[in-house]
Write the structure tokens for this entry.
Amino acid sequence: MERTCLAVILAAGDSTRMKSSKSKVLHPIANRPMIAHVVDAVARSDISSVALVVGRDAEEVAKAAQMGSVKIETYLQGERLGTGHAVLAASEAVARGYDDIIVTYGDVPLQTEGPLKAARQGLAEGSDVVVIGFHTDRPTGYGRLLVKDGELIAIREERDATDAERAVKWCNSGLMAINGRKALDLLSRIGNANAKGEYYLTDLVEIARSVGGRVTAVDAPEIEMTGCNNRAELAVIERLWQERRRHEMMIAGVTMIAPETVFLSYDTAIGQDALIEPNVVFGPGATIDGGAVIHAFSHIEGAHVSAGATVGPFARLRPGADLASGAKVGNFCEVKNGKLGEGAKVNHLTYIGDAKIGAGANIGAGTVTCNYDGVNKHETVIGANTFIGSNSSLVAPVSVGDNAYVGSGSVITADVPADALALGRARQELKPGRAAALRERALAIKAAKKAKS
């Protein structure tokens, strides 16, 4: 029989050290609020119910945590009286009789499903409390996990530890799993007889043992248990997340020439044999198919690049950009809500917005699709194998048919039929000798100004 589980996510902190106008858990890692990373880890742990304990910015935090696969109920912690008190804020959910209760934190965004599943397995094997710990060469400041004969006998805070206990490198992450049938009784036994008058979740270790319960610990990678308290730690977590995801992608067959200069979003998808050159930034919603090439200094967001297509260098793909196989967007080009057909080329210094470009079309340097009239956006349609000359402006709504030509420097305001040549520019005139006369006049004016001064 499958075990039921509730995850209690604590996200009610005041975030004072963050020095921010918004809750700490709303700050993004890889363009996603850190609370959403935590909910995602919970969802991957086969947990479908979440009790989200909120405080500051409660509505915004609840909205950021929403995911379709997880049912989330929010509980307000009015006072901040410790972690044990925070879990009890969700006592209504805890009392429903789940098999497992997982307690985790909204400011630990690098956590994955592995340790959470391991903690649940510990409950399935008979433990009443399972603490998630991590090994570190820098244990200073952390509570130490003291284990004897396979059981966790205490979490010793550093200020209370002996020299021998301080030498222990297995530390408390704060995350734990509790037997759901006993959780409410155990939590209600937590007292506040301490210097701060707070209710500490770590007291559950001794409480469970005092009533004959079994307490164990499981290990998690140190990186996954990294918490965030200020902007410096936020930057560290961003770096760690990026390093982990780049490594996963490269192991899966993506080539990154200088991976430390590539920045990914939480949902960036890159296929096998894609090549990513240095200094590329991916915003949310970017999908790069296998075999595509992204040249240096490009920015891609909300866009799809098919196999064999190339982007950049110094290109920007905005939401709605869609490049078919073999298409090219070259240097200093921008595409927004533009679809490029197979083999279409937008080589340099061009803006394509709200447009459809046919297969094999060539868009010359400096071309602009004039898509905005000051109120509304309009579409430009360019047919297959069409040639648009350099420095042309296509004033939407407008269409250019298959195999048509648009002369360089043209302003196109009316539809161009297939196979037609369109010229929309002033006729050139020649005035022999006029340049010399203009130059002499300019020099005379300059001399007169100088004499006057």
In short: The first helix runs from residue 34 to 43.
